[in-house]
Amino acid sequence: MTLAIIGGVLWILGIVALLTGVLPADHAIEVADRVWPILLFVVAVTVVAELASKAGLFDVVAARLARLARRRTAALWVLVVGLATVATAFLSLDTTAVLLTPVVVSMAVARRLDPLPFAFVTVVLANTASLVLPVSNLTNLLASEALGGGHDPVAFLAMLGPSALIVIAVSVVVLTLVFLRRLPRTYPDAASPTVSDPVLLRVSGVVTFALLPLLVIGLEPWMPALGAAVVLVAVFAWRAPRALGIRLVPWSLLVFAGGLFLAVGALEALGIGRITALLAGTGDDLRALWQVAGVGALVANGINNLPAYLALESVAGSPARLAALLVGVNAGPIVTPWASLATLLWHERLRAAGVEVRWSRFIALGAVIAPLILLLGVLPLAL
Predict the structure, then answer these.
(1) Which family does the record claim for this protein (predicted)?
(2) What is the pLDDT of residue 20?
């Protein structure tokens, strides 16, 4: 609700800027033309993930990973890391935060393991693994569009793949050193999750796993995502119509993102670019790339990663600088609770599951990880 209220205020400010001429109408049209495919993808992939979750897909996958680990906690830890990384890379960081968090928590509790270490895996990797593909993060979709090559996953991986690998590796190493030694070496078996409708589970599994490769073959991401959403909605309308509803659509995020695009467009028209250019500096050498990544992370932790990206995108200036900015605004916002929407959603899901986590603990962990990933994640971009 708070996100929708903020978004509503931003919409009002944007409309006022449009009516008063501060934001030219042609510029607003350009923004809308750029943004609608991205927001359509966000809606479609959210609907797919929500319906797959209602069918029990994530619960079944997590249970099978637990069986695959054969009661060895270290093996389960590695498999959960892999699941969080894949979910983030293909289905976006918000999907990992919202849908995977309660799954891994219930999986851990059922096996008498402390759920907090696994919960921290989901939130940290939801942010740091969001550098992998264009569809992993809304900022990536914006950046790949800004580069002019469309949402080409191969080009994106060529640019950010090494940085993503380093950032994920650093995150996993720190998480493992902090948490894994506190867990028992083995865990007891637990009952398999109950599946209310096997047909829905099978169809959801087929549709979701078929969607993953379709998101990385060069199509506009909204196309396969929308197709998958239509199929699942049709099947649920047949098998479980009560599961369908207006709440499947992430309205708060849409209102917030749309208002933010308008407001930032107005600020750019007023000359905010001069300030951001001064902060971000110039050049493609390592020091300059560290500067733009660091500024991106600071602004993201100060306000939020999406407005941080929008405010700094115009002064990135080159593919290397844009990639460094993504390292800062994607992987860097893990210090303050509000830096990433995924973090706030994660905390909300933990509270709903009855798991309490102190923000001081989150901040302390993020303060260790963030400088390391900024320092090391930018290095490949300067080579």
Answers:
(1) Belongs to the CitM (TC 2.A.11) transporter family. Belongs to the ArsB family.
(2) 83
